[in-house]
Amino acid sequence: MPPLNILLVEDDDFDAMELSRAINKSQVEVQEIKLCKYAEDALVTLESWTPDCIFLDYQLPKTNGLELLKRIKKIAPHLPVIVLTSQGDERIAVDMMKAGALDYFPKSEITTEKLTKAFHTMFHMLEVEKGREAAQHELAEKEEFINKIALLSPNIIYVIDIEKWTNIFHNKQIRKILGYTEDDLIVDANNGFSKIINTQDQLIFHKHYHYMRRWVKDGEIVEKEFRLKHKNGAEIWIITREVPFKRNEKGTVQEVLGTAIDITSRKLVEKELIQAKKDAEEATRIKSDFLSTMSHEIRTPMNAIIGFTDLLLTSNFSEQDREHLKTIKYSADNLMVILNDILDFSKIEAGKFVLENFEFDLREKLSYLLKTFQVRANEKSIDLTFHFDDDVPQIIMGDAYRLNQILVNLIGNSMKFTEDGGFITVSVHLHKDHGQSVDLRLEVSDSGIGISEDKLNIIFESFAQAHSNNSTHYFGGTGLGLTITRKITELMKGSITAKSKLGEGTTFSVILNFGKGSTSYEEEKVDDPVSLSLLGYRILAAEDVLANQILLRHLLTKWEAKFVICNNGKEVLGALEEGEFDLILMDIQMPVMDGITAMKKIQNFFPQHAHVPVIAFTADTFAEKTPEIIACNFNGFVTKPFKAEELIKAITQYLVVNNSGSRPLTIG
Q1: Which stretch of DSSP H or E encloses residue 629?
Q2: Could you tell me if 456 and 538 lie in one domain?
Q3: Which residue numbers delimit the PAC domain (predicted)?
Q4: Which of 406, 570, 572, 416 is nearest to 489 (CA)?
Q5: In this structure, how many other beta carbons lie within 10 angstroms of the beta carbon of residue 319?
Q6: Between the chain's N and C termini, which has fewer beta carbons within 10 Å?
Q7: What are the tens digits of pLDDT across the range 76-127?
Q8: Residues 376 and 507 in one domain
C-alpha cells in the first residue's frame, strides 16, 4: 500500500490529536496529514491538494458534516470519506452513507485495528476505482475510434431493422452521397426506405431482404446493387455488402449490418462501354453489309467474265486473240485477288474466319501450287524451284486451303518484286517432331528488290507498303496480302518472320503445326476426274443474271445433265410443282423472290422434296456465316465467280451421297 495523504476535518484539537495518533499507529504508511477546523477551509484545501481520503467530523461550526460531505462529493465524487461523530446515532450514519461516505465511526470506538481495516478497504476500493476509470477511459477511446471510423469512412456504414423497416445506425456518407443535410430525415416510420430507394428497384429491394431474413447464414456476406434517389431526383447506384447482425427469438434475421459504396461513375462508364460496343457492332454490321453487297455486285459480273474467258480459251482462236483472252483473264484474276484480300481481311476482323482440319498430301498440294505460278515465272524468266526435305511427312492433318493461301500470298509477293531473270525458292523443312504432330518451317526466298531494315517492322501492318508510292504504283496491290498472311498464320497458332536486304532479296519463314496423317490416306485417295457425265440427273438452277445463265447452260449441257434454269425463287417453286429434281442450285439474291424465301417455302410447303440437296449459289462471301442463311440449312455453298471444277465437285459430292450409286456418275 503506498503512503497516504489524509485530510482531517475536525474542530476539536484533542479529538484531532487522538485520531492522528491512532492513524500513525495503524499498519499503513502516512505521508501527510492536514488538519482543517472549518468546512470552508477544507473546501479551499481541496482546490489545490487532493488527499487519498478524508476523515470528517459530523459536528462542525456553522455547518454539519452531511452538508460538507455533499459538497465534497460534487468536487471529487470518488474520494473516500470516513465520517466521525461523538454520537452513536444510526440515523446519522444512514444519511451519511447515502450521501457517499465510505464508513462511519463513533469517536469512542476508534481503534488502531478498525482504522487499519478501513484503510485496507479504502485502498481496495481505490484500486477498483482506478481500474474502472482506466477501463472507462479505454472504452471511451475505443468508442471514439469506432465513431471516427464510422463517421469518416468513405463507405456508407449502416445497421437497419428489416423486420420493422427502420434505420438503427448510419454514418454521414449516406447523407453526403444523397445530398441531404444533418437536419433532413431520410428514413422515417411512415415511408420506411421508399423515400431513398429508386422506384424501379423497390421490388428488388424487398425481395433481397426477404432472402436475407430467411436464407442467409451468420457470417455469410451478400452483395447486391441498388439504385437510390438523390435529393435532387438523380439516380445513384450503390453496391452493398451485408451480413446478419441480430436475429429475433424465432431465429429469423432482424437486423442487418452493411457497407455500401457509390458506383454511379462506374455504371456510367459501363453504360458508355455498352453503347460503344453497340456502336462498334453496328459499324461492323454496316461494313459487313457493304462488303457483302460489294462482293455480290462485283463477283456477279466477274463470274461471267472469268467463266466465258475460260470457255473461249478452250476454243480455236488465233494466237493474237488468245493473247488478248489471256490478258483479260490475267486482269480479272488480279481484280479477284484484290477483292479477296479485302474480304478475307474483313472476315478475320469480324471473327468469321474458319479453319478446317483434314488430311492432305503436302507434296502434291505444293506441286500443284507451284504449277499455277510457273506460267508467270516463265513470262519473267524467273527460276522457280521447290525443295522438300526427306524427313517431312507427306500426309499431314490441317487446313490445306489456308496453307495454300499463305503460300500464294508469299510466292505472289516474291513474284511481284522479283525482276526478270531472278529466282524464287520454296522449301519445306521439319522444324520439330512432337510425335503425333510436327512443326514445319516453310520458306519463300527470292532475289527481288528487298526490303530496308527500317521497313521490315511494318510490312505486316494493314495497308502498309514497304516501298515508295512510285514502287507501289508500279507493282500494284492493296498492301493487305502480308497482313492477311500474318493473321492467318496466327490463327493457325504459327509464326511468320522476314529477313531481307535492300537490293539483294527477301526470305519469309513460316512455322506451322500439323498433325501426322494416316497411312491409309494414299490408298483412299482418288484422282480428280478428267471428265464427268451427269447423264440421267435433273438439276434445277436459280440464277437471275443472263450471262451466268448462259454459262450454266453451257456447263450443264457439257456435263450431259437435264436442267431447268429459273430467273427467281417464284419460278423455282413452280418448277418443283411440275417435276422432280436431283439437286437444286439456289442463288441467294434474286428479284421477285430471293433464295432464302424460296428455301423456307420449299421446307414448309414441299415436304416431298425434303431429300433434294440444295447448294447455295452466291456471290456473297459472308453468306455461310449469316444467321438467316444458316437457318435455311443449305447443304453446301458455291461462291461466285466459280471455276468449272469447283462447281462440278460440289454437285457430284451431293449427288453421290444422296443417290447411293443408283445412278452412278460416269467418270471418263
Answers
A1: helix 627-630
A2: no
A3: 222-275
A4: 406
A5: 7
A6: C
A7: 888 899 988 887 677 888 888 888 888 888 888 888 888 888 888 888 877 8
A8: yes
